Amino acid sequence: MSDSFEELADWAAPLLAVLEPPARRQLMRRIAAALANNQSRRIARQQNPDGTPYEPRKKSQQGQIRERLAQGRGRIRRAMFTKLRTRSHLKTKGDAVQAAVGFMSRAARIARIHQFGLMDSPAPGVREVRYAQRELLGFTEADRAMVRDFILDALGRGT
Predict the structure, then answer these.
(1) CA–CA distance, 25 with 94 (Å, rounded to integer)
(2) Which of 20, 55, 78, 138 is the most exposed place for a label (fewest CB within 10 A)?
(3) Residues 118-159: pLDDT tens digits?
């Protein structure tokens, strides 16, 4: 998947060199904002960039006890990453050289653990567990097509 993005970057580099720095900066900001929106929507759908669904959460021991106690009342569990996908955590940056989308500080740590399926303690004093790999950030074919369209649009307008 990264190979096709590298191909896109190689294709776009000479085209972007034609644009003046203010126009490139505006284009990169526009691309970063659109990518962040796409990433947020994909995370809300609980999908990896390749379209496969995220692996569901494992039920905790306490969660199983609570469910038995709450039988009949039903239990609504919040979707994963509802706060993480908000603009307060999902940051964008665009300048004349690059467009970036990512997480900062504690959100970055949580995102990295899920992105790569690393070990972490779910709560203080609890033993570490391996989290399932859930790709929060990644490029879909639609993202690549959108970036191509934005670049061609910017070149067509001459801005």
Answers:
(1) 6
(2) 78
(3) 999 988 888 999 999 999 999 999 999 999 999 999 988 765
CA 114/CA 116 separation, integer angstroms = 6
Q: What is the pTM of this model?
A: 0.82
| d(C-alpha 129, C-alpha 108), whole Å | 18
